[in-house]
Amino acid sequence: MSRASARSPIGVFDSGVGGLTVVRALMERLPFEDIIYFGDTARVPYGIKSVDTIHSFTTQITDYLLARDVKLLIIACNTMAAVAGDAVRERSGVPVLDVIDAGARAAVAMSGKGIGVIGTPTTINSNAYARHIHQLDPSVHVYSQACPLFVPLVEEGWLDHPVTRLTAQEYLKPVFVESIDTLVLGCTHYPLLKHLLRDVAGPNIRLVDSAITVAEQTAGVLTEMGMHNPQRGEPNYEYLVTDIPLRFQSIGSRFLGRELRQLSMVSLG
Ligand code: DGL
Predict the structure, then answer these.
(1) Residues spanned by the domain of 221
(2) How many CB atoms lie within 10 A of CB 209?
(3) Is 188 in the pocket of ligand 1 (CB under 6 A)?
Protein backbone atom coordinates (compact mmCIF):
# COMPACT_ATOMS: atom_id res chain seq x y z
CA MET A 1 0.00 0.00 0.00
CA SER A 2 1.52 3.31 -1.09
CA ARG A 3 1.91 6.07 1.51
CA ALA A 4 2.51 8.66 -1.20
CA SER A 5 0.89 12.09 -0.97
CA ALA A 6 0.94 15.19 -3.18
CA ARG A 7 4.18 16.22 -1.45
CA SER A 8 5.90 12.97 -2.39
CA PRO A 9 8.49 12.93 -5.16
CA ILE A 10 8.12 11.61 -8.69
CA GLY A 11 10.33 8.55 -9.28
CA VAL A 12 12.15 8.36 -12.61
CA PHE A 13 14.41 5.50 -13.59
CA ASP A 14 16.68 4.40 -16.38
CA SER A 15 19.50 1.95 -17.01
CA GLY A 16 22.01 4.77 -16.68
CA VAL A 17 22.45 8.44 -17.28
CA GLY A 18 20.23 8.75 -20.39
CA GLY A 19 16.96 9.09 -18.48
CA LEU A 20 18.10 12.48 -17.29
CA THR A 21 16.70 13.79 -20.60
CA VAL A 22 13.29 12.94 -19.11
CA VAL A 23 14.18 14.60 -15.79
CA ARG A 24 15.15 17.72 -17.69
CA ALA A 25 11.80 17.82 -19.49
CA LEU A 26 10.00 17.28 -16.15
CA MET A 27 11.94 20.11 -14.46
CA GLU A 28 10.88 22.46 -17.24
CA ARG A 29 7.24 21.36 -17.33
CA LEU A 30 6.70 20.82 -13.57
CA PRO A 31 9.14 23.15 -11.78
CA PHE A 32 7.67 22.56 -8.28
CA GLU A 33 7.85 18.77 -8.22
CA ASP A 34 10.50 16.87 -6.25
CA ILE A 35 12.19 14.14 -8.28
CA ILE A 36 14.17 11.04 -7.36
CA TYR A 37 16.17 9.75 -10.28
CA PHE A 38 17.57 6.22 -10.29
CA GLY A 39 20.23 5.26 -12.85
CA ASP A 40 21.56 1.71 -12.83
CA THR A 41 25.02 2.82 -13.94
CA ALA A 42 26.73 -0.31 -12.62
CA ARG A 43 24.77 -2.52 -15.01
CA VAL A 44 24.24 -0.28 -18.05
CA PRO A 45 23.81 -0.95 -20.98
CA TYR A 46 20.51 -2.83 -20.81
CA GLY A 47 19.83 -2.55 -24.55
CA ILE A 48 21.91 -5.61 -25.42
CA LYS A 49 20.87 -7.80 -22.44
CA SER A 50 18.33 -10.62 -22.34
CA VAL A 51 14.68 -10.08 -21.49
CA ASP A 52 14.95 -12.10 -18.23
CA THR A 53 17.88 -10.05 -16.98
CA ILE A 54 16.21 -6.73 -17.80
CA HIS A 55 13.04 -7.98 -16.10
CA SER A 56 14.81 -8.81 -12.88
CA PHE A 57 16.85 -5.56 -12.77
CA THR A 58 13.74 -3.48 -13.52
CA THR A 59 11.64 -4.98 -10.73
CA GLN A 60 14.47 -4.39 -8.24
CA ILE A 61 14.59 -0.69 -9.15
CA THR A 62 10.80 -0.41 -9.05
CA ASP A 63 10.64 -1.89 -5.54
CA TYR A 64 13.41 0.43 -4.39
CA LEU A 65 11.57 3.54 -5.58
CA LEU A 66 8.21 2.36 -4.26
CA ALA A 67 9.82 1.95 -0.84
CA ARG A 68 10.73 5.64 -1.12
CA ASP A 69 7.01 6.44 -1.44
CA VAL A 70 7.08 8.02 -4.87
CA LYS A 71 3.66 9.28 -6.01
CA LEU A 72 4.19 8.39 -9.67
CA LEU A 73 6.73 6.26 -11.52
CA ILE A 74 8.24 7.04 -14.90
CA ILE A 75 10.08 4.34 -16.82
CA ALA A 76 12.47 6.61 -18.67
CA CYS A 77 14.31 3.72 -20.31
CA ASN A 78 12.84 2.50 -23.58
CA THR A 79 14.45 -0.91 -23.18
CA MET A 80 12.94 -1.47 -19.71
CA ALA A 81 9.56 -0.14 -20.84
CA ALA A 82 9.64 -2.44 -23.86
CA VAL A 83 10.19 -5.69 -22.00
CA ALA A 84 9.25 -5.06 -18.36
CA GLY A 85 6.61 -2.30 -18.43
CA ASP A 86 3.81 -4.71 -17.48
CA ALA A 87 5.79 -6.09 -14.52
CA VAL A 88 6.32 -2.54 -13.19
CA ARG A 89 2.59 -1.78 -13.49
CA GLU A 90 1.60 -5.03 -11.76
CA ARG A 91 3.60 -4.25 -8.62
CA SER A 92 3.00 -0.47 -8.38
CA GLY A 93 0.11 0.99 -6.45
CA VAL A 94 0.88 4.34 -8.09
CA PRO A 95 0.44 5.51 -11.71
CA VAL A 96 3.18 4.38 -14.09
CA LEU A 97 4.11 6.27 -17.24
CA ASP A 98 6.68 5.24 -19.77
CA VAL A 99 8.54 6.63 -22.73
CA ILE A 100 7.27 4.03 -25.22
CA ASP A 101 3.62 4.78 -24.63
CA ALA A 102 4.37 8.51 -24.74
CA GLY A 103 6.48 8.23 -27.91
CA ALA A 104 3.91 6.06 -29.69
CA ARG A 105 1.08 8.49 -28.88
CA ALA A 106 3.07 11.51 -30.02
CA ALA A 107 4.11 9.79 -33.24
CA VAL A 108 0.56 8.72 -34.16
CA ALA A 109 -0.70 12.24 -33.46
CA MET A 110 1.97 13.70 -35.76
CA SER A 111 2.19 11.20 -38.59
CA GLY A 112 0.08 11.12 -41.72
CA LYS A 113 1.42 7.92 -43.24
CA GLY A 114 4.55 6.19 -41.97
CA ILE A 115 6.55 6.15 -38.75
CA GLY A 116 10.21 5.20 -38.38
CA VAL A 117 11.40 3.99 -34.97
CA ILE A 118 15.02 3.81 -33.86
CA GLY A 119 16.21 2.26 -30.60
CA THR A 120 18.47 -0.31 -28.95
CA PRO A 121 18.46 -3.90 -30.31
CA THR A 122 16.33 -5.14 -27.38
CA THR A 123 13.73 -2.40 -27.83
CA ILE A 124 13.50 -2.97 -31.58
CA ASN A 125 13.41 -6.78 -31.26
CA SER A 126 10.61 -6.54 -28.69
CA ASN A 127 8.41 -4.83 -31.31
CA ALA A 128 6.91 -2.80 -28.46
CA TYR A 129 6.73 0.47 -30.41
CA ALA A 130 5.07 -1.12 -33.43
CA ARG A 131 2.52 -2.87 -31.15
CA HIS A 132 1.72 0.35 -29.30
CA ILE A 133 1.45 2.36 -32.50
CA HIS A 134 -0.83 -0.24 -34.12
CA GLN A 135 -3.09 -0.32 -31.07
CA LEU A 136 -3.59 3.40 -31.55
CA ASP A 137 -3.86 3.29 -35.34
CA PRO A 138 -3.72 -0.07 -37.16
CA SER A 139 -3.42 1.60 -40.56
CA VAL A 140 -0.10 3.34 -39.95
CA HIS A 141 3.11 1.83 -41.37
CA VAL A 142 6.00 1.33 -38.95
CA TYR A 143 9.64 0.81 -39.93
CA SER A 144 12.06 -0.05 -37.14
CA GLN A 145 15.82 0.09 -37.02
CA ALA A 146 18.21 -0.81 -34.20
CA CYS A 147 21.10 1.64 -33.79
CA PRO A 148 23.41 -0.05 -31.23
CA LEU A 149 26.34 2.31 -31.81
CA PHE A 150 24.44 5.47 -30.88
CA VAL A 151 24.58 4.84 -27.10
CA PRO A 152 28.39 4.55 -26.91
CA LEU A 153 28.80 7.52 -29.28
CA VAL A 154 26.63 9.71 -27.06
CA GLU A 155 28.42 8.49 -23.91
CA GLU A 156 31.66 9.47 -25.62
CA GLY A 157 30.26 12.95 -26.18
CA TRP A 158 30.44 12.70 -29.96
CA LEU A 159 27.18 14.50 -30.45
CA ASP A 160 28.16 16.27 -33.65
CA HIS A 161 31.12 14.23 -34.78
CA PRO A 162 31.70 13.05 -38.38
CA VAL A 163 31.77 9.44 -37.16
CA THR A 164 28.33 9.84 -35.57
CA ARG A 165 26.99 11.52 -38.71
CA LEU A 166 28.27 8.70 -40.91
CA THR A 167 26.85 6.09 -38.51
CA ALA A 168 23.46 7.83 -38.55
CA GLN A 169 23.44 7.99 -42.36
CA GLU A 170 24.23 4.29 -42.55
CA TYR A 171 21.61 3.24 -39.98
CA LEU A 172 18.90 5.47 -41.38
CA LYS A 173 19.43 4.71 -45.07
CA PRO A 174 16.97 1.75 -45.09
CA VAL A 175 14.44 3.69 -42.99
CA PHE A 176 14.45 6.68 -45.33
CA VAL A 177 13.83 4.43 -48.34
CA GLU A 178 10.40 3.77 -46.80
CA SER A 179 7.87 6.56 -46.93
CA ILE A 180 7.96 7.94 -43.41
CA ASP A 181 7.15 11.44 -42.20
CA THR A 182 7.95 10.89 -38.51
CA LEU A 183 10.94 9.37 -36.70
CA VAL A 184 10.65 8.26 -33.06
CA LEU A 185 13.84 8.66 -31.02
CA GLY A 186 13.18 5.41 -29.14
CA CYS A 187 16.12 5.52 -26.73
CA THR A 188 16.94 7.86 -23.86
CA HIS A 189 20.27 8.81 -25.43
CA TYR A 190 18.98 9.84 -28.82
CA PRO A 191 17.52 13.26 -27.89
CA LEU A 192 21.12 14.36 -27.49
CA LEU A 193 21.63 13.61 -31.18
CA LYS A 194 18.55 15.58 -32.17
CA HIS A 195 20.42 18.30 -34.06
CA LEU A 196 22.49 15.82 -36.02
CA LEU A 197 19.52 13.53 -36.70
CA ARG A 198 17.40 16.45 -37.81
CA ASP A 199 20.10 17.30 -40.30
CA VAL A 200 20.44 13.73 -41.56
CA ALA A 201 16.65 13.24 -41.74
CA GLY A 202 16.01 16.45 -43.67
CA PRO A 203 13.10 18.89 -43.44
CA ASN A 204 10.29 16.46 -44.33
CA ILE A 205 10.67 14.16 -41.35
CA ARG A 206 9.56 15.20 -37.86
CA LEU A 207 11.41 13.84 -34.85
CA VAL A 208 9.56 12.58 -31.77
CA ASP A 209 11.34 13.09 -28.44
CA SER A 210 9.28 11.11 -25.93
CA ALA A 211 10.87 12.96 -22.97
CA ILE A 212 8.76 16.03 -23.72
CA THR A 213 5.58 14.00 -24.22
CA VAL A 214 6.06 12.02 -21.00
CA ALA A 215 6.50 15.28 -19.04
CA GLU A 216 3.23 16.52 -20.54
CA GLN A 217 1.48 13.25 -19.63
CA THR A 218 2.83 13.49 -16.08
CA ALA A 219 1.34 16.96 -15.69
CA GLY A 220 -2.00 15.59 -16.91
CA VAL A 221 -2.00 12.63 -14.50
CA LEU A 222 -1.07 14.85 -11.52
CA THR A 223 -3.91 17.21 -12.37
CA GLU A 224 -6.38 14.32 -12.72
CA MET A 225 -5.32 12.88 -9.35
CA GLY A 226 -5.10 16.26 -7.62
CA MET A 227 -1.50 15.34 -6.79
CA HIS A 228 0.50 18.43 -7.82
CA ASN A 229 2.94 19.42 -5.08
CA PRO A 230 1.27 22.27 -3.15
CA GLN A 231 4.66 23.58 -2.01
CA ARG A 232 6.10 26.40 -4.09
CA GLY A 233 9.66 26.42 -2.76
CA GLU A 234 12.88 25.21 -4.38
CA PRO A 235 12.22 21.56 -5.38
CA ASN A 236 14.40 18.71 -4.19
CA TYR A 237 16.25 16.68 -6.81
CA GLU A 238 18.00 13.50 -5.77
CA TYR A 239 20.11 11.36 -8.08
CA LEU A 240 20.78 7.75 -7.12
CA VAL A 241 23.15 5.56 -9.06
CA THR A 242 24.58 2.09 -8.58
CA ASP A 243 28.07 3.23 -9.61
CA ILE A 244 29.75 6.57 -10.19
CA PRO A 245 31.79 6.12 -13.35
CA LEU A 246 34.68 8.44 -14.12
CA ARG A 247 32.87 10.90 -16.36
CA PHE A 248 29.44 10.56 -14.80
CA GLN A 249 29.23 14.13 -13.52
CA SER A 250 30.13 15.72 -16.83
CA ILE A 251 27.96 13.41 -18.94
CA GLY A 252 25.10 13.76 -16.45
CA SER A 253 25.28 17.54 -16.54
CA ARG A 254 25.14 17.45 -20.32
CA PHE A 255 22.00 15.27 -20.28
CA LEU A 256 20.44 17.48 -17.64
CA GLY A 257 21.50 20.84 -19.02
CA ARG A 258 22.53 21.93 -15.53
CA GLU A 259 24.88 20.94 -12.75
CA LEU A 260 24.18 17.59 -11.14
CA ARG A 261 24.05 17.92 -7.33
CA GLN A 262 22.86 15.51 -4.59
CA LEU A 263 24.33 12.43 -6.23
CA SER A 264 24.67 9.26 -4.15
CA MET A 265 25.52 5.66 -4.71
CA VAL A 266 23.12 2.93 -3.60
CA SER A 267 23.23 -0.82 -3.67
CA LEU A 268 20.33 -3.00 -4.73
CA GLY A 269 21.88 -6.28 -3.63
N1 DGL B 1 18.26 3.62 -21.56
C2 DGL B 1 18.36 2.76 -22.72
C3 DGL B 1 17.13 2.96 -23.60
O4 DGL B 1 16.45 3.97 -23.56
C5 DGL B 1 19.64 3.03 -23.48
C6 DGL B 1 20.90 2.61 -22.73
C7 DGL B 1 20.99 1.12 -22.48
O8 DGL B 1 21.17 0.33 -23.43
O9 DGL B 1 20.88 0.73 -21.32
O10 DGL B 1 16.83 2.10 -24.38
Answers:
(1) 10-98+212-265
(2) 19
(3) yes
